[in-house]
Amino acid sequence: MITCVVDYTIDATKIVEFERFARRWLELVNEHGGTHHGYFLPAEGASDKALALFSFPSLAAYEQYRRLFGQHPDFVAADKLRDETGCVVRYERSFMRPLLPHDSDA
Predict the structure, then answer these.
(1) Which ranges of the sequence are coiled-coil (predicted)?
(2) How do residues 21-34 score in pLDDT, each as one tens digit?
(3) Which residues does 100 contact at the CB level (< 8 Å), separation at least 6?
(4) Which end of the chain is more exposed for a tag (fewer CB within 10 A), N or C?
């Protein structure tokens, strides 16, 4: 399993627009082979930081999902929402390997 962590810098005045964008990606990841663990939005502290975490069974499965970017009409529409509203200032992706409670020591 591989987990993608997306670290967002958002426009704090456009949180409603960011939530609409995020809700759409929650659906898209789950519809296309992944498991979305949610978006984590500002509550206290920095008001312009948000995170998203979602997993795919393998890097190959994630890459298959990524091939839909710029091609699949739902992906294009979700990116258009981000771009037209300006709710995301920048974002950075990193990949992690989760250690889960049921994982063995071996």
Answers:
(1) none
(2) 999 999 999 999 99
(3) none
(4) C
